[in-house]
Amino acid sequence: MNTTETLPSRNSRRFALSMIALAIGHAGCAAPDEPAGQESVAESPALASTNGLSSINGLSSINGLSSINGLSSINGLNSIKGLSSTTGLMTTAAGRATVSYIVRCALPAGHSISKQDQSGNWYTFNGLLGLAPGWETGGTTQTDRYLISSCLMAHVNTTGQHIPLYLDGPAPLGWGRNSAYPIQEGSFIGDLFASPPVARYCGGRGFGSSVVAGRIGDDNQHGEPYSVIVNPQGYTGCDAVCTRNSTNDGFTTCPGIAGIPITVWRQLSVSSAISFENGSLSGFYSQADQPAKVSISSDFAVDGTHSLLATINASSSGTATVQASAPASFHGGQTVTIFVNVASGTNWDYIQAYVQEPGHSLRWTASGWKRPELIPGEWNSVVIHLPSDYASAGAVTGVSLHTTGAGTIKTYVDAISSED
Length: 420
Description:
Blueprint: E1 16-20, E2 41-42, H1 93-106, E3 112-116, E4 122-126, H2 142-154, E5 163-168, E6 183-191, E7 198-203, E8 227-228, H3 238-241, E9 243-244, E10 251-253, E11 262-266, E12 285-287, E13 292-297, E14 307-314, E15 317-325, E16 335-344, E17 348-357, E18 363-370, E19 380-385, E20 396-404, E21 407-419
Parallel strand pairs: 2-4, 7-8
Antiparallel strand pairs: 1-5, 3-4, 5-11, 6-7, 6-11, 9-10, 12-15, 13-14, 14-21, 15-20, 16-19, 16-21, 17-18, 17-20
């Protein structure tokens, strides 16, 4: 499987990782680097990976990566003492797969290491992200080990499925958003080199939306190396258990957890029930006390090239709402995702998406964000969990925005979907 990867400039430090998975517990994939006889085998970079890892070899609840496996965090990867050719990771296909992802996370693009296994076969492992470039010839810092740990966890897929990822984090990774990756899946943090290792995650704003098998949010995920962070109130969302960076792209710390978080964004993985691509308003209309002009726009889109534009001309504080009949595909127990993009206007303080059921005395199921929490001019996913006894007859869905004063607010809506 070949994909095209456009690497960023050295100044932007942003990376969209195409078709990668670090898989744990997937027996159906052969290791990508098993040699034929004594020939030299080149380990392909992340942008052309066709297999995931079958394990993070040697990682257990007792020992971290630097405790065993012939791997040393105090010596360079290119040295014998840094990565042994005769013991540990280099002696098995699973171990070599672990090495390939360690190198991809640690070294920058254009750098590589070559190692032999115990039988004399040569392997070349290529760098990509450059989170710990000094490890090529020297030891690691604690910051290096934190970043590599988060990077490895961010690529776990326990089924071996390969999906595109977009990573946000502090330098040298960098902050930023890519409109092709609208789902904030979650953040990963820990220290896999410690004994015992620390491996934790929290759910992003899109957690439970466009769920991918083998990733966090998948109820059937098995063999994962991490556990969820829970605060004293029982919340597991990143906004509740970690600290956001200044632009809301990701998270900088998770109090009480050793490490540096890396936040993962993903693409849509489910079809939209409403996408506005056919030029129709799909029954959406404006209501409530602040008027909105509803139209189809090509300014922004999540799914395709068009979205719904609600131009709200507020005269005072109040509520502006656009809604339509809920799609027939909605049913009890599902997760509904609605994408919103508030492109202009500061005279508002809260936006929410909702589903309302006349069959349950106008029961209102909603979720939303305060204005400081949203990134203006970019898509933000709102996830709604339908009750198990959801009554579809006459149900409506929509977006409601609370205004704080007079002014025009342009709000876009797109990619309304549901999934079990």
